[in-house]
Specification:
Blueprint (H helix, E strand, L loop, with lengths): L1 E5 L4 H12 L3 E6 L11 E5 L5 H8 L4 E4 L11 H21 L3 E5 L13 E2 L14 H18 L4 E6 L1 E3 L10 H10 L5 E3 L2 E6 H14 L5 E4 L2 E4 H11 L7 E3 L1 H17 L7 H9 L2 E2 L2 H7 L6 H14 L6
Parallel strand pairs: 1-2, 1-4, 2-3, 4-5, 5-7, 6-14, 7-11, 8-10, 9-13
Antiparallel strand pairs: 10-12
Helix pairs in contact: 1-6, 2-3, 3-4, 5-7, 5-11, 7-11
């Protein structure tokens, strides 16, 4: 089957390409820049802009399934570039998919399109959304607004579903630009993390996200959201497991959440002076909330089965060793 993937050179995109190729599909991989390496001869790379309707229609022509992954992540409160890409980009790809007669579109949104601070401790597909009244950062609000853009084209006849991964980590990643979570695990495996922070978040293996997207292409119901969760992982335990997998002790203790909240008014502006957003409300808001993410809908309707955090961390450290990012 011929399929197309936007944002194909990204973190999730790379893992999705590997699965689609393994499944025997003919893939058109679309991104702003064509990478030097491709998974196989089954992948045709196309340099494209998700804000260019004519270009997208040409790139998607003949595709039965379209996976839309292209997006920008930021912790800023406002960013017009991020807003446009995460909203207009969805609309452009949806219109192009409808124009070329794609059988289905799978939109990779995010758990951040939900208001995690206002969900009474349990997050499901019926929880409050990150709308304009939520006061959440632009990334959160733009991901929800992007879903609303997709809904407009579903009303016009496009068969599309929306997937919402939680915190994504695991192999494979890009050596020069590791994801935030993967970099934390690598730093711990290198013995660079003497202490960690309290609190946790639902984390999901990137390979399970790729599998969930594929499952949604066949089993998802039109217009529905599916939370692709893994399991709640305490950040201190994440760092400890990463260090132990590399034969190191890891952080000695975790700074309690109440301490982080108390020093936030001071730590955030100091961090910004050094170009760091780690100690900010935007970065730690979901950890402060610590919602339990209910993925029963994806498990029941899609057949989604995520792996354990222990397996992901073990595989991630092994991947670092295999690729030279970590000495054995």
């Amino acid at each position: 089957m011929k399929v197309a993937v936007t944002g194909a050179a990204g973190y999730i995109g790379t893992n999705l390409l590997h699965q689609l190729v393994a499944d025997g599909h003919e893939v058109t991989a679309i991104d702003r820049a064509v990478p030097a390496l491709t998974p196989s001869d089954c992948v045709t790379w196309v340099e494209g802009d998700v804000l260019d309707l004519d270009g997208m229609a040409t790139a998607l022509d003949g595709a039965e399934v379209v996976y839309h992954l292209a997006a920008m992540i930021t912790l800023k409160q406002e960013d017009p570039v991020v807003w446009r890409l995460n909203t207009e980009g969805v609309a452009t790809v949806a219109e192009a998919a409808l124009t070329v007669g794609a059988r289905r579109m799978v939109h990779c949104s995010s758990v951040h399109s939900f208001d995690q601070t206002n969900c009474d401790g349990v997050l499901s597909e019926t929880s409050p959304r990150a709308d304009d009244e939520s006061g959440l950062p632009v990334y959160d609000r733009s991901k929800y607004a992007g879903e609303l853009e997709l809904d407009r084209f579903i009303d016009k006849g496009l068969d599309a579903v929306k997937c919402n991964p939680t915190g994504v980590y695991g192999p494979v990643d890009h050596a020069g630009r590791l994801s935030r979570l993967n970099k934390m695990v690598r730093d711990s495996a290198l013995g660079r993390v003497p202490l960690s922070v309290g609190g946790g978040f639902d984390l999901v293996d990137v390979r399970d996200v790729a599998n969930g997207l594929v499952l949604a292409s066949t089993n998802g119901r039109t217009g529905e959201n599916y939370l692709l969760a893994g399991q709640m992982v305490q950040l201190h335990e994440l760092m400890k497991l990463g260090a132990r997998a590399a034969g190191r002790r890891g952080p000695l203790f975790a700074v309690p959440l109440w301490v982080l909240k108390a020093i936030m008014p001071i730590a955030e502006p100091i961090g910004s002076l050094f170009g760091s957003d780690v100690m900010s409300e935007s970065a730690l808001g979901a950890i402060f909330a610590q919602p339990v993410v209910d993925s029963s809908k994806a498990r029941t309707e899609l057949g989604y089965k995520p792996r354990s955090s222990e397996e992901t961390i073990r595989d991630l450290v092994a991947y670092y060793v295999r690729t030279g990012l970590l000495d054995r």
